[in-house]
Design brief:
Rossmann fold, six-stranded parallel β-sheet, two-stranded antiparallel ribbon, alpha/beta
Amino acid sequence: MKILWCITGAGDFLTDSIEVMGKIDTTIIVFLSRAGRKVLEKYKLLRDVRRTWEVVEDDDVSSERAGSVSLGEFKAVVVSPATANTVAKVANGIADNLVTTAVSMALKTGVPIYMVPTDWVPKEVKIPDILTPGGSIVHMRPRKADLRNIKYLESEGIAILESPQRLLRELEQAGFDVVDEGGSKEG
């Protein structure tokens, strides 16, 4: 069982997402948006991600690789972290880059999609402050458009999750093996 893990241009949830990736005991292929690559570089994580997983970067020909989603190569598509821009594009049917094309293919072929948006939070959870690479704190709040887009994606069957840790629990429930802190399989 392979997972396609898409990383977009958000610093929020980035390190937690990578930590969760390391706890999943299955093959993960990483699709990077152009902004996702830049953010990984800023956080000095790009080298580690490339060393650990197969990485496909967005360029003029890589979107062809997104077609592998419709051919059954992946049992799940994850977008974590997902920027408001990516969420808006998917909600409005725009498939103009590697990540949005892969999600579009997954939607069309019924591959489960799990998304951890950065600009959304359920009512019972406080919006987290964002720590920048320089160490400053940024306070965020979702726009009405962000909330509307999330609601639409949920109506399309996309699992919208408030954190990478919740994503890990969902993937485990879906049958993916998870390793504990000591490196052994849970369950």
